[in-house]
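In this section we walk through a basic example: taking a raw amino acid sequence and producing a predicted 3D structure, encoded as discrete structure tokens. The instruction is simple. Fold the sequence below.
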Amino acid sequence: MAGSCGAAFIDANVMVRAWTMDVMLSLAEAGMFEPLWSKFVLDEAHEALLGLRPQAESQIVSYLSAVQRSNSYACVPESEFAVVVPDLPDPDDGHVVAAAAGGGAKWVVTYNLRDFPAGILAPLGLKPILPDAFLCMLFSCDGSLAVATMRRLVADKRRPPRTMAEELAGLRRNGLANFAAALEEAFAEEAGAERGGAS
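The resulting token sequence is shown next.
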């Protein structure tokens, strides 16, 4: 069942950023959206991560296995891919659009919008969107749930532990500055309300 903001297909360039995926999968688990990917995207992410960290294959495999276990229904089988895919700036990205359209996604979440022109994806009912914009959209759907989910994500970190300030800094390092700002504003409003209630 799709989450409150619908289904979103996650591109490989998002999947390789564990910090971003941690947030997205936490919000998906909270029911804010339905994540989708494909074996091709998982393979691309594996190849990209291995290129960055050739000595860390076991950790990479473990990370991607955890991503897959997070949602057993997220992987779109090739048999469900859309048969007709429009020409893209990079033809090698056709599998992303085919899987997203076949899986019933509304969004293609990617750090590279140039590879997925909105006008080309629109006839398939797809919208390309940056991770930061996507997370801000989820926040606008239910800010209270997003804030509670992020608090729980940070509280669950044990090895090593993480503060909310460290979480926000990590968001900014991964191109999620607007989402971090929305969270900070929400925290400030909560603190103000608590001070007002105590006076």
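Looking at the output, two observations stand out. The chain has two domains: 7-131, 136-198. The CA atoms of residues 50 and 58 lie 10 Å apart. In the next section we compare this with other chains.
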